[in-house]
């Protein structure tokens, strides 16, 4: 602090104010005299060409110019040195609080902030990974649950369809000769159906859906079966039971029609048979249409439930708002693990930018490396052997 006060004392400022104009004026005069004298020699050489006498005059001028420059430097050094000290004093107090300067409080605080930001970022990335894994596990379980339900419903529908097809086949194959057997068969089937959904079928019901990793398939399958059990019973009784009741109730009427056909002449019998078959066909189409409509409605509901579940999962999947996160700027920084690591760096730079630069730009950029190679050539006679590199002798007069 005392050094700072010494430098910026008023008398030092006055010294700069008084000495600077005088030093500058003397140096300007020296410059003008030097330039005028040298210009005469240069003009003569340009007009007449170089000779021994002019070479000596040029050498003498160059030596005097060097001494003049030295004198000018000494004359203004006191002023410029004080300027430098003043500038240094100003920059010193600035540097003490500059967060970009190593060791300052701001720099240390920034280091702590960087470390804390890196820690918070790592924690947030971990949280996001865990959240993603949780959502993926929940989504896998949700999709598996929906797929299991669809699969079990399809198996149940096949059971219902098979039962109804058997009833329809028996009804369509009714004749006067097999009437009693058909009636007995349908009544025994009704007694079986009236007991409800076959317990042995439901007990053996298993899903054939692929099981995702990490999902408790047995627990989910049991859950879905319990959920669907009552629905299956009611639907089985409604579809298979109603079809049986309707078919059995119509058997006496069909028998009467068959008896009339058997007593009628051929033409009348054919007509009556065609009418009966048309009624049967129309009835079968009505029943099939109702069944298809029920299946379509069931699929529509299932699809709606699936989409609703997906939307719910989408909104639930949004990551919960995290705690305070400092503002950060993340940039990639290269760390060389060994000296050889610089080669791929240079290679990438050359392929993207270096190959587009001019010779002058590259020479300026690699000045240190070029100087090193020149030193090897002059001192150890080690030369680069490449068609793109040429060594030229530079001659300087001493």
What does this structure look like?
This protein is mostly helical. It starts with a helix and ends in an 18-residue tail after the last helix. The protein has helices at residues 2-7, 10-48, 52-95, 105-172, 179-193, 199-204, 217-263, 266-316, 342-352, 359-365, 367-380.
Low-confidence stretches: none
Overall shape: rod-shaped
β-strand percent reads: under 5%
| Helix-strand sequence | HHHHHHHHHHH
Q: Please give the number of β-strands.
A: 0
Estimated radius of gyration: 52 Å
Structural class: mainly alpha
Task: Please outline the major beta sheet.
Answer: none
In oligomeric terms, what are we looking at?
single chain
Termini separation (Å)? 49 Å
Q: Share of helix among residues?
A: over 70%
Estimate the mean pLDDT confidence.
86
Helix tally? 11
Topology:
Elements: H1 2-7, H2 10-48, H3 52-95, H4 105-172, H5 179-193, H6 199-204, H7 217-263, H8 266-316, H9 342-352, H10 359-365, H11 367-380
